Structures are given as structure tokens and as C-alpha cells.
Amino acid sequence: MNLPDNLPSVLVVDDEVRSQEAMRRTLDEDFMVFTASDADAARLCMERNPISVILCDQRMPGLTGVLFLKEVRERWPDTVRIVISGYTDSEDIIAGINEAGIYQYILKPWVPDHLLATVRNAVEAQNLQRDTNRLHLELRTSTPVLRQRTQAKLSKARSVFDFDRIERAPGSPLDAVCEVAMRVARYDLSVLVLGESGTGKELLARAVHYASPRAAGAFVVENCAAMPDTLLESELFGHKRGAFTGAYEDHPGLFQRAHGGTVFLDEIGETSPAFQVRLLRVLQEGEVRPVGAAHPVPVDVRVVAATHRDLEQRVREGLFREDLYYRIAGITITVPPLRERAGDIAPIARRLVREVGAELGRPDASLSDEALACLMGYPWPGNIRELRNEIARAIAISDSDAIAAQSLSSRVLHGQAGLASAAASTHGSALPRTGTLSERLDAIEAMVLRETLLRHRWNKTRSATELGLSRVGLRGKMARFGLEG
Question: Looking at the domain assignment, is residue 329 inside a domain?
Fold first, then answer.
């Protein structure tokens, strides 16, 4: 099977067919997804196809997920390895993290958005690591002229995460957010980023890192909500050989690997009080004690944390330590949700159409004015992540490169129609108050046409029937009022 060059491939290994299909549905808009029910089928698939990421269930017939991923590490070292299992297997997973080179551990029951974000981050990490390895190799082996060129490439790579690359409209509320973040980036202060899920908190954290004196260091990410305490402690602080069954060699934690750089702790509000104590000690002392180690190891990192929780409220409720809160909240930055910066929807949507269109092999995809108006009228409770998924769906089902409103989901269309209907029925200010009688009637007629078309997903037959018009008559009115269809 030939894979599109621009579509990363993912292999799901799980002996439960329903679980396979659930993961396929979650991932297949962004990735070429293969499935296998056991290790033998997975080996055959990997021999025939270039696999970017493998998602493997821990409990399988014959081999455990960790043992199979150890084999994958040896035979296909460039494939990013993710294991999926329950809390009951956490000790086995901890023991196999270093041995199998596991990138991430996802707990059951997994959440679709988290699974999708984890795989996206895995592919991004793989691409960045390949670029970094290639550039560092060029630096070590090149002539002075080539080294200068390679340094320029590294600078260009860092510019990808510049504050100016955070998509927004002129005068957006994000301007003030980015201005504050840019000012504090130069100082070695901890930063707490607050905001709803999907608002782009990690993107802002990356921009802070690359605008700081630590830009040449590593930027490492950990989702604190995705792991139990024991696994999170080992992942962040590391462990020593022999610390527990299966710990065959030393495993440096993310704090050690980020020495001189930045650690981004996502969803820090989900951590347990017991883990908060251990994290506070690390931040206070500037050193970590790997599991099983006799002595602490000094680390020099900047911590940027993020959460969708109200941490001050959780402090008052006794769910989050007050001393840790003040330690991580040296500077607090709040990213507003998309519904509070509706002007940003258009530029973000256009950029997502370009990016997702390229990923799906539809580089000429674009949004019609009517589709864009619908997107701008929806409140987006899932923020940019939901907007991205909506655009991917619309591109996939659209027959034309120009995405019409009909290609949007009923959720978005009904949300838009609901806003228009509510405005017309409950707010007199939504109706025209100036102009001639004819002009006012035209405005009301256009509003009714638009609301009806949106509610019927631009089905002209149903809309014409409801309005008592022929299809020809409806088309004439749509042309008159500039409504696409």
C-alpha cells in the first residue's frame, strides 16, 4: 500500500476490534491508520509500511505491549512508541519505559481529544528530533561556511514558534496576552498559563521558551493528567537501575533532559496532593532525586505550567497546595476562549484550511464567505481544537475545493441558526430600525432566508417548501440577497 507523503501513518495494535475501530475513528482524519490484533500482524504491517507512531495495548495474547514495543525499538527505532493500559499495569509500564523507549503512556478509558493530541505531539516530536539530529550532524561535520548556514537554519526553526506566528486578527485580545508573555519571556520566572482546553496554551508556552535566553535548550512537555503518580514521578524525575523490577538501567527524567531549557507541565491542576509535595521540593531546591537514587541531581530548568482549572478556587478547596501555586505562578497569563475573540476565528480558520488541506491532499481548499460566516457565528466550546476538527471534516466531505456552508456539521449550522433566530426574536435591535419600508422588509426577508437555509443545512427543496416558494423562486431570492448555495 502506498502512503501519501504528507500523511503520517499510525499503527493501532489491540486485540479488541471495537477498541481498534474507536481509535481509528479518532485518528483517521489526521493520519493513515493501520490496525493489527496481535504482535504477528503488527510485525507484518511494519515490514510493509513506514509507520510513524505505534499505539499498543498492554494486554495482548502472547506478548505484553511493553515486550512488543521493546522489539519495535530494536527493529524500527524511529517509530514513536505509545502504550495504552489501565492503572493496574502501571508498575509493569514503569519498568518498561526505558527498556522499550516508550514515548507516552495513555490510561484507559482514554479520551479522544487527548489521544489525538498525544499522537499529533508524537509526530511533531519525531519530526523535530529528525531535523535537530540532522542539523547537529551538519554542525559537527561541516565547514565554517556550512556551519554558519546551519546555524541560520536553527534560528529559522526557532522562529516557527515566534509570538507573531500565533494566528490572530489585528486588535485581537491575544495582542495583550502575547505582549505580556513576550516581556516576561526574557526573565527566568515561572509562568502559569490559564485557559480552557484547546485555546493554544502549549503554543504560547513554546513561544515563551523560544523568546527566552533558554531558546537553545530543550523544550519538553508532560501532560500531568495522563499518568498515575508513580509513573509521572519516574517520567519527570527519572529512576536508577534496580530501583524496581525491570529497571535495568538508569533513566534520566524530563527535568534532567531539559537541563538548561524549559519544562512545560500541562494540566498541572490535575495532580494529586502527594505529587504536589514532591514537585514543590524540586522547584524549591533546584534538584531532583530519581527513584532509587541515594543523592539528588541538580537541574536548571524553567517551569511553564498550564491548566484549565481555577487554581485559586482549588487552593481554597484544599485540592491544590497554596505554596506550590505561588511557586509556579510567578507570572500568570490567561488565554481567552475563542468565543471571546470572535474576530480571530476567520484568520485561524483560513490558516487551518491551508494546513489541514495540505495534510489531506487538498492544498487548494478554501472557505466560502457563507461557510466562514457560519464558523464565526458558532461559540466553539471546544475552542481551536474543535474548529480544527470541524474544518478537517468539512474538507473531507466537500465535493469542491471551495467549502460551502452545506459541508459544515449540523452542530455548527444549528448553532449559527440558533443565534440568528434568537437575535431576531428576542432582541429588537437585531431588526432594522432605519431606512425605507422596502429596505427594512428586504433586510428582514434576507434574515429569514438565511436562518431557514442554515437550519435545513442549505437543502433548497426543504427550505423552499417551508417558505412556500418554488426552487427557482428561492434561487432568485438567494441571488438577490447575495446568499451562496
Answer: yes
CATH number at residue 211: 3.40.50.300
User: Does the pTM of the predicted model rise above 0.70?
Assistant: no
Q: What is the CATH number of the domain that holds 345?
A: 1.10.8.60
The parent domain of residue 258 ranges over 161-336
- Angle between helix axes 273-285 and 229-237 (nearest 10 degrees) is 10
Burial of 246 (0-12, 13-18, 19+ CB in 10 A): middle
Residue 228 DSSP symbol: -
Give pLDDT tens digits for 197-215. Answer: 999 999 999 999 989 988 8
Grouping H, G, I as helix, E, B as strand and the rest as coil, residue 300 is coil
Q: List the one residue out of 200, 170, 176 whose CA is nearest residue 352.
A: 200
* Residue 288 region by backbone torsions, left for phi larger than 0, else alpha for psi between -120 and 50, else beta: beta
For 19, the grid coordinates are 477498541
Residue 121 lies in a domain: no
Do residues 288 and 257 make contact, with C-beta atoms less than 8 angstroms apart?
Answer: no
Residues 310 and 353 in one domain: no
Domain boundary among 51, 83, 113: 113
At 202 the pLDDT is 92
Distance of alpha carbon 56 from alpha carbon 81, whole angstroms: 8
pLDDT of residue 97: 61
